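Q: Hi! First time doing this. I have a protein sequence and I read that you can turn it into a structure. Is that right? Here it is:
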Amino acid sequence: MARAPVEGKSWAEHVHPDDIGWLIEAIEAAMARKDERFTAEFRIIRADNGEVRWLACNTRMEYDENGTLARTIGAHLDITERRQAEEALRQSEERLRLVHEATGLGDFEAGSDGIARVSERFVAQAGLPPGTRELPLSDWLRVVRRELVMGLMLGSILALIGFVVALVMTPSIQGAAVLGITLLIVVICGAVTGSMLPLLFHRLGLDPAMMSNPFVACLSDLMSVLIYMQIALWLLPEASLSGATP
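A: Yes, that's right. Below is the predicted 3D structure, encoded as structure tokens:
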């Protein structure tokens, strides 16, 4: 490929206005230090179509016996696609950070070694020791067991309260039992599901941002209705047949 001479001033005119200032300062600093090599990444504005492109330069600087820069030999590499990919990744990480703050999402990344790398928010949600950054599968199962125990305790208390209140409002023990048992199962399922959803989402290759509070709340509501209907059909079979009675 033929090379044509380009004056330094003409070349600088094509450097992006936001980059020309620091780029000149970096070049002058390298010359002052008598650096033999200069590297930088900066933007240019193409002369033919005005498109902004990213370039990576790698330049060898040669000096004469007096220490004056005699010539430079270098090359430019178009790295626009790489910089665009980096910017897209940065924006994606920023969106995920905003999702974390808005929804209280505790995220993790599970590798093939069976170890999950967890965020600070996940550590707080799971009640793990502060500073925990890795969670082996055995520890994850321990978290699930702990959530199961807490769900059983809380569910039992709510079930007892619900049973007593329902018994006061209805003369039917079976009717009151429907509410009590529903509360117990819903709380246990909610606790276990909340701890298992991150692992399930990872296995399915789904976006962790989907595991937001509205999503979990909607899933819990749907699960509660289905559990209530199933228990009611089990304990009150006459209710399911009443519609068919002539």
